[in-house]
């Protein structure tokens, strides 16, 4: 509410940033992902296939202690839930160190094959896209979400194999994060304006 008041923006002007990760591209899901966004009245306003450098990826994911600790904390909580030992797999129980390790695996994964980046616009697009994509862990994602329909990975499987969770898509979590990511990935590219039949006119 405050966000829209502050920006005097109609909800359908909201933009979010989406990456189809290497597993999504390699599974042939580019068309399916775009279809699901478009069928919910979301509009693709910029798009490109590319291979990310490690530096670009490093600047994409936050590296604040808070973000790294959150990632480490999530991992630790999952381990406790399933009775696995963080100490055995990571050699430490320090949440910051665990978060740093997972972030490194993420960068390895995201630079392993081409991805498709896009800017998606539409009513509350940040929340809508996250809903269509589903929660982070594919094995917990509802059927009907992209992750629930096309992936089955888990944190424990990924950590044992020392890699990031394969969950097909990255999508911004907040409008502020979206603004930052759009600037980072589409800084020099045009973001297009056009009217979709039945939505904008
Ligand atoms: P997202 O916003 O749904 O992508 O999730 P996060 O921001 O929490 O995490 C970023 C990415 O890190 C996720 O999309 C996963 O690919 C990966 N990831 C998250 N948690 C874990 C974990 O516990 N273990 C591993 N190996 N990867 C994880």
Give an overview in words.
This protein has 201 residues and is α+β, with helices and mostly antiparallel strands. It has two domains: 1-51 and 114-192, 2-Layer Sandwich (Alpha-Beta Plaits); 55-112, no CATH class. 49% of the residues lie in helices and 12% in strands. It contains eleven helices and four strands. It has helices at residues 2-7, 22-26, 30-39, 54-60, 65-81, 86-90, 95-110, 125-133, 146-150, 155-160, 175-186, and strands spanning 15-20, 43-50, 115-121, 169-171. A four-stranded antiparallel sheet has the order 2-3-1-4. α5 packs across α7. The radius of gyration is 18 Å and the shape is globular. The model has no long low-confidence stretch (mean pLDDT 94). The structure holds guanosine-5'-diphosphate. The site of guanosine-5'-diphosphate (GDP) has 16 residues, from α5, α7 and α10. Guanosine-5'-diphosphate (GDP) binds at residues 71, 74-75, 78, 102, 105-106, 136, 155, 158-159, 164-165, 167, 170, 173.
CATH topology-level fold name of the largest domain:
Alpha-Beta Plaits
Radius of gyration: 18 Å
Bound molecules: guanosine-5'-diphosphate
Q: What structural category arises from helix and sheet content?
A: alpha+beta
* Count of individual domains: 2
- Report the count of strand segments: 4
Mean pLDDT equals 94
